[in-house]
Amino acid sequence: MAQMKRTVIVASAMVALTACAPAGYDGANSSAAEPVAVAAAEPTAAVEPEASATASAAPPADDVAPQQPPANVDLTERLIGKKVARMGSVVTDQDGWILYRFDKDTNDPAASNCVDKCAEVWPPALTDGEPQLNNVTDDLVGTITRQDGTRQITLDGWPLYRYIGDKKPGQWKGQGVGGTWFVVAPDGKKNLTCLPTGTPKPVAPPSDAEKDEGSDYSY
């Protein structure tokens, strides 16, 4: 499994959550970022091919073969099902970062609609093999091939993501963002235990934030 390198990205805060807000979240000092484009017009990922009676058929010419993620890309080496205070059942990676699913994706067939700036704000949970599993059912875990050829982990067919608005492991500031992003439970369903009031906006993508000289994107 490739060694992970984590890049901490400083971004603006979202709308304050209710009493369910993760520890350390200070809504009084936050400023909502403008909404960003969160989805492409069409699905951009295909399910990993499986052996079948038609396996001898030639794949479409435009299929993208899986490839190793670049060395500087975070990898998700483990999926861990656990319970955290106030939120309940969640799935984290090996470093404790809570993972999310996106309502504009599909799970049958499994496909990701989060690309470009969306993927800057919601980095896909990428793998270079099979992640180790703790309290997550093996039968529910799979992968899809993204537009760039990297492989993204799925849970019950739903592609998994992190959120750059979470500044430390265990936070879930992405819960309910845009009304389409939700903490994922170990069975792949949305965890709706703790929802914010209103509809929080996503933080600004790093590519936009870097252009805003003098803006403070820290919490």
Describe the structure.
Helices cover 4% and strands 19% of the residues. The chain has helices at 117-121, 206-209; strands spanning 46-47, 78-84, 88-92, 100-102, 106-107, 110-111, 126-127, 132-134, 141-145, 151-155, 158-159, 181-183. Strands 1, 7, 9, 10 and 11 form a five-stranded antiparallel beta sheet that branches. Strands 3-2-8 form a three-stranded mixed beta sheet, with no helix packed on it. The protein is globular and about 40 Å long. The protein is mainly β.
Task: For the structure shown, list the relevant keywords.
219 residues; 12 strands; 2 helices; 5-stranded antiparallel β-sheet; mainly beta; disordered C terminus; disordered N terminus; 19% strand
Give the helix/strand class. mainly beta
- Give the integer mean of the pLDDT values: 76
Uncertain residue ranges: 1-18, 23-62, 213-219
Major sheet summary line:
5 strands, antiparallel
Query: What is the end-to-end distance?
Result: 33 Å
List the helices and strands and how they pair.
Layout lengths: L45 E2 L30 E7 L3 E5 L7 E3 L3 E2 L2 E2 L5 H5 L4 E2 L4 E3 L6 E5 L5 E5 L2 E2 L21 E3 L22 H4 L10
Parallel strand pairs: 2-8
Antiparallel strand pairs: 1-9, 2-3, 4-12, 5-6, 7-10, 9-10, 10-11
Brief sketch in words of this structure:
The protein contains two helices and twelve strands; from the N terminus they run E-E-E-E-E-E-H-E-E-E-E-E-E-H. The protein has 219 residues and is mainly beta.
